[in-house]
Amino acid sequence: RVSIFRFDPESNYTSGEFVSENVLPDYDSTLAIKVKDDCFGRKYALAYHQGRIQVLSDIYQADLKDCHIQLLEQFQIKAQLVVDL
Asked: First vs last Cα of the chain: how many Å apart?
């Protein structure tokens, strides 16, 4: 799956939605799913906005909080590349 997630900046980066994706038929679509998450946005959004890039080949081997892993699992995400567009 390749997805683009757009944060709602008025939410202090705690909510947003998937606005585009390319996904294999075996996976559920995430398009237009709205997400509310207090685990990620407040702490990390500014760093990504300032140019941070994160590449994780396995979310379970990374130093992620349990709440972040649980959120990624909801969308069948096992690896991720995070960049600010």
From this structure: 18
Decide if 58 contacts 72 (C-beta within 8 A).
no
CA 11 to chain centre: 15
- Residue ranges of domains in the chain, CATH in brackets: 2-82 (3.30.450.40)
Given a cut of 70, whether residue 42 has pLDDT beyond it is no
Residue 1 above 90 pLDDT?
no
Closest to 29 in 3D by CA, of 70, 65, 1: 1
Name the residue with tokens 């997400």: 35
Q: Where would I find the H helices in 1-85? A: 41-49, 66-74
